[in-house]
């Protein structure tokens, strides 16, 4: 898979470790910044990941900020992006399997790097269940998106 990864200044300290981990799992990474710890605004980096998904440059994305919350709010404003902050492995795989989540948001000030790796692994290994109630619910989400 092609994975777009971006972080604001708060997420920057773990971004390279996440990139290396994703690459070691056999995925292609698009590094969308930031490239240092100078203060930047997380919505800009959520947008970069969202645009990579919209433009089919990336299959999924990861956005890292201090808590993961701001990145999640920003990312979900982008059409075709279904983002969630996950601080556990269950939510990371279940979000993909049941809800077709395509962007994982992480809080670098909340999680240690080993748990981050487990969460990223669960997210990347999961596949959306394309039938029954999961597909019906996702179609309702898409209808909500179109109505806006």
Quick structural overview:
The protein has 148 residues and is α/β, with parallel strands linked by helices.
Keywords for this structure?
Ribose 5-phosphate Isomerase B, Chain: A; alpha/beta; 148 residues; single chain; five-stranded parallel sheet
Describe the structure.
It is a single chain. The chain has six helices and five strands; from the N terminus they run βαβαβαβαβαα. The chain is α/β, with parallel strands linked by helices. The protein has a single domain (2-147), classed as Ribose 5-phosphate Isomerase B, Chain: A (3-Layer(aba) Sandwich). The chain has a five-stranded parallel sheet with strand order 2-1-3-5-4, sandwiched between helices. Strand 4, helix 4 (89-99) and strand 5 (103-107) form a beta-alpha-beta unit. Helix 1 packs across helix 5 (113-125), helix 2 packs across helix 3 (69-75) and helix 4 runs parallel beside helix 5 (113-125). The chain is globular and about 45 Å long.
User: Main sheet?
Assistant: 5 strands, parallel
Described by its quaternary structure, the protein is single chain
Along the chain, the helix and strand elements come as: EHEHEHEHEHH
CATH class bucket: Alpha Beta
Total discrete domains: 1
Low-confidence stretches: none
Rg is 14 Å
* Total beta strands: 5
Please estimate the helix content: 40-55%
Which CATH architecture? 3-Layer(aba) Sandwich
Write the layout of secondary structure elements.
Layout: E1 2-7, H1 12-24, E2 28-31, H2 42-54, E3 60-65, H3 69-75, E4 83-85, H4 89-99, E5 103-107, H5 113-125, H6 132-147
Parallel strand pairs: 1-2, 1-3, 3-5, 4-5
